[in-house]
Amino acid sequence: MTHSLVLLVVIPLIATPVCILLHKRLLIWPVVFTVSWITFYIACDLMLAVRDGGEIYYYLGSWAAPWGIEYRLDSLNALVAVIVSGVNALVISFARASIFQEIPEDRIYLFYCAYLLNLAGLLGVTVTGDVFNMFVFIEISSLSSYAMISLGKHRQALLAAYRYLIMGTIGATFILIGIGLLYAVTGTLNIPDLHTRLSAMETSRTVITAGAFLTVGITLKFALFPLHSWLPNAYTYAPSVVSAFLAGTTTKVFIYVLLRFLFSIFGTGNMFDIVSLDKVLMICALLAIYSGSISAIYQNNIKKMLAYSSIAQIGYIVLGISISSVAGLTAGIIHLFNHALMKTALFLCVACIVYRTGKVSLKSLGGIGKAMPWTMAAFVVAGLSMIGVPLTVGFISKWYLILSALNQEAWWLALAILTGSLITIIYVWRVVEAAWFRTPASELRSGKIREAPLSMLVPLWILVIANIYFGVDTGITAQMARQSAELLMGMP
């Protein structure tokens, strides 16, 4: 396993120019498919190694940290790497038929290039132990995201990509300023070395200012309320597989970045005790839960509904972080994993609908459950998971969140979590009611609309089954989340 850690980033990075060389040849999808599943296998192998044997280190060029760039894998980023590579592998398995319909043929190879570049960037952000190297990978993943969104067939895709570009650039600037301020006062960019040096500077105004810049920049990147304005249109007008991939990976990686800065670099003493950042994050998280859920209720476009739902689900993750305890962090990290499963499945259901009908409006999809029973059954299961019904991963997330709130004797917070889940029922039911209980449109009655092909249903149902399996057997996810929470809180 000597080089496995660096291969997570190197393999998709090397495969990117290969896609350009293949251009329009039929081999391009098999290459991306193979790279994706190899990356997922390596990530799973590394996670099991971390679980059983502790942290893994890799020094690039054999230059030891803090002088050289270090890759390091612990229980937290091992889990995030599995999330990113796993979602990537399933989405790319699903994508072949979908992208031929939604992306012009002469641009498909560009999509694959941007896709692999995005994967390399996200995995680089996850495994690097150097904050400037992290910033470089953030920009690699962000630039490729803008490109993928712009490939959507609607004109609004260009506007959504441009808006995301502007907001993302502002966020990146804030992150870079924060990193620069930290380097100015410590003279190092290595994460453990930064933590050691900052522990003696708890009340430094420069350090607190750096923390403020970093928090704003990172939360803008993962669309925490009120910095979420770019997300709904980006998810709505991007190609369907891009929406699924971004919803399952990008926001999760940037939440990981926030965890890494707040806990592994600053420690809870700086940002939580001195400037009460935990209270600020809690307020923003609650506003995200309610504003996102209520906005989702009024959407007629299913993709936009799921986009607003993502804002609410991000709120649940940040709510766990804001509790600032081992139980709260465990709940937030578990939901980080679980939300990737449920939201990727929901967006892939929409991709199946778009593939067969070309429509995403609730008004035009009445009775589609009878024409596409397997697709809509998958939507129902994933929707129940998002609500938090027992025997699904969503229930596990809500259960841990409520327990963490009760451990802090915050009964009102537990009630807020339950209320937010009840609101979720409303917009999930709107889709279920339209699909199964409305009179089918003439196009559906004529039999022209058929079920999605098997190549799309298999990856979708793997995710659906995972929503149930990890809702019953929480051994791996709960253990890794607990280990990660204890690591972040500085517990041996």
How would you explain this protein's 3D organization?
- The chain is mainly α and 492 residues long.
- The chain folds into 2 domains: 1-275, no CATH class; 290-492, no CATH class.
- The chain has helices spanning 4-22, 28-53, 75-102, 108-127, 131-150, 155-186, 191-198, 205-221, 231-237, 240-266, 268-274, 277-297, 302-322, 326-357, 368-371, 373-387, 393-407, 411-436, 442-445, 454-472, 475-488; strands at residues 56-59, 70-73.
- A two-stranded antiparallel ribbon has the order 1-2.
- The longest helix is centred in the middle third of the chain and has 32 residues, at 155-186.
- The protein starts with a helix and ends with a helix.
Summarize, please.
This protein is mostly helical and 492 residues long. Helix content is 78%, strand content 2%. Helix 14 (326-357) runs antiparallel to helix 20 (454-472).
Q: What are the key terms here?
A:
mainly alpha; 2 domains; 78% helix; 2% strand; 492 residues; two-stranded antiparallel ribbon; single chain
Distance between the termini: 25 Å
The class by helix and strand makeup works out as: mainly alpha
DSSP summary: helix tally: 21
- Low-confidence stretches are none
Major β-sheet profile: 2 strands, antiparallel
Give the radius of gyration.
21 Å
Placed side by side, the strands forming the largest sheet appear as: 1-2
Q: What is the number of beta strands?
A: 2
Give me the oligomer status. Answer: single chain
Q: State the helical fraction.
A: over 70%
As a percent range, the share of strand residues is under 5%
- The helix/strand series, from N terminus to C terminus, equals HHEEHHHHHHHHHHHHHHHHHHH
Q: Give the integer mean of the pLDDT values.
A: 88
Number of domains: 2
- The dominant shape is globular
